[in-house]
Design brief:
The protein is α/β, with parallel strands linked by helices and about 450 residues long. It is built from 13 helices and 25 strands. Strands 8-7-6-3-2-1-24-25 form an eight-stranded mixed β-sheet. A hairpin with a 2-residue loop joins strand 4 and strand 5. The longest helix has 20 residues. It binds zinc ion.
Length: about 450
């Protein structure tokens, strides 16, 4: 069996691993990588027409965003994912396509390819081992966002566990991933987003967040809570729902559509679903531009996209609040360097009405995350004890930190592949090689797109 790494190799973004077994070819995820000058697709992918199946771990665009592009190049095969991942992926892909059109950016695919993605999706249930062609697959709860799964594949007498993005700690929204349910694993491919970092205690973080909101409301200010539409918006709603507020909670942007999709889904791993449903009935939804302007001027708690204030209604609320020292912006996750959210957090500046402005309102970042800490990654590896450990989805330092720990503290063979490398596996040996395709094969990687592309949600990872 060969594993070829087309993305998320010493980076976060464009997750895509190709698995070749017998005559079959499969992809584990097919994502985009966003950066300041645009976005990249998975690298060095040849002959997408002959791909036999895609296993999609979750809806975030850095795992799903390449699908319509691959469909454009005539990839026609089942895309396996859970029901929520299906629903949310389609919302995010449509949004990203819509924004690209509004901004007159060149897109490599059309509505036709979006439709093709939806036709090729085959919904799968959690914890149900299923045969497909030469392999068996099984989806386990990943605890990252609703619908997220870690995927186990068994082929050629080997079992491979691809974690996707996962979290082994319970949050207000998600039941945690449990590596003990994965069974025997020969090859563990784990994400390392926070390979270098510990994360704050969740209960303590929630308490601090609620106290900070209370203080602002008491002094008559407004609170802007920029959120990612998937996961963080619902989580913040549940946390806010733990207290009574004398002001309305207002939800705006994509969060509404995604919350509806989550409430409609069958996912047994969404925690507090009933509470979420009750709160969803109580919050005020913004229905028009005039409505938005009216509510932005009154006391309230505004839960809205985008999480890094790069687009979406969050910008509108910031324009009403930036000069009010009584009000506050409470960021709720990781901020990519150069975004408005990052500037607010690090410099207390943001682009307001086209000008870079020093803001007078309070700014604080609460370190909520859908990923696991370095210690949790280590605990996962210790629990699973794979023969082969493959590290991906993290920057170089994060991956090297986990690699150094694993070499010292475990018996695993440790691999941290670069883009375009191939791991050849069999019963007893593992070899890393540079992957070279036969001459003449069509490589879709020549069609890269350098566009400043900022969909409302920018649903990358945090
Ligand atoms: Zn993710």
């Amino acid at each position: 069996m060969d594993l070829i790494f087309h993305g998320a190799a010493h980076e976060v973004g464009r997750s895509c691993i190709e698995m070749r077994t017998g005559n079959d070819r499969f992809l584990l995820d097919c994502g985009l990588k966003f950066h300041e000058s645009g976005f990249d697709y998975p690298a060095k992918v040849f002959e997408v027409r002959s791909v036999d199946g895609v296993f999609l771990s979750h809806a975030h665009l850095d795992h799903s965003g390449g699908l319509p592009f691959f469909e454009h190049y005539k990839m026609r095969c089942p895309i396996f994912c859970t029901a929520e991942t299906d629903h949310i992926t389609q919302i995010l892909l449509k949004d990203s396509h819509k924004i690209a059109r509004i901004k007159h950016l060149h897109e490599a695919f059309s509505n036709l390819e979006l439709k093709q993605v939806s036709q090729d999706i085959q919904k799968v249930a959690f914890n149900k081992e299923t045969q497909f062609r030469s392999i068996r697959y099984n989806f386990f709860n990943a605890g990252h966002i609703p619908g997220s799964a870690s995927v186990k594949i068994e082929a050629e007498g080997l079992s491979i566990l691809y974690t996707g993005d996962y979290n082994t700690r319970k949050t207000a929204l998600m039941e945690p991933a449990d590596p003990h349910t994965w069974g025997h694993v020969d090859v563990l491919i784990t994400e390392c987003t926070y390979g270098m970092r510990t994360l704050p205690d969740r209960d303590e973080l929630e308490r601090k967040f609620l106290e900070s909101v209370e203080e602002v409301i008491k002094r008559g200010g407004r609170v802007l809570v920029p959120v990612f539409a998937v996961g963080r918006a619902q989580e913040m709603l549940i946390i806010l729902g733990k207290r009574q507020w004398p002001v309305p909670i207002i939800m705006d942007g994509m969060a509404k559509k995604v919350t509806r999709a989550i409430l409609d889904g069958p996912n047994p791993y969404v925690a507090n679903k009933q509470l979420l449903s009750q709160l969803f009935d109580k919050v005020e939804f913004v229905t028009s531009e005039d409505h938005r302007t009216a509510v932005a001027q009154k006391p309230g708690i505004f839960v809205t996209t985008s999480g890094m204030l790069q687009g979406g209604p969050a910008i509108h609320y910031l324009e009403h609040m930036w000069s009010d020292a009584n009000s506050a912006v409470f960021l709720t996750g990781y901020q990519v360097k150069g975004t408005n959210g990052w500037m607010l957090d690090n410099e207390r500046t943001a682009y307001v009405g086209g000008y870079r402005t020093h803001v007078q309102c309070e700014v604080h970042r609460f370190d909520f995350s859908g990923h696991l800490s370095n210690e949790d990654i280590q605990n996962t590896i210790k629990a699973v004890q794979p023969r082969v450990l493959v590290l991906n989805h993290g920057n170089r330092e994060a991956i090297e930190a986990i690699a150094a720990w694993a070499k010292q503290n475990t018996k695993c063979e440790v691999f941290a592949p670069e883009i375009g490398e191939m791991l050849q596996l069999n019963d007893h040996s593992t070899i890393m090689k540079v992957y070279e395709e036969c001459i003449g094969a069509e490589c879709i990687n020549e069609h890269q797109h350098k566009n400043p592309h900022h969909p409302d949600t920018m649903e990358n990872d945090d």
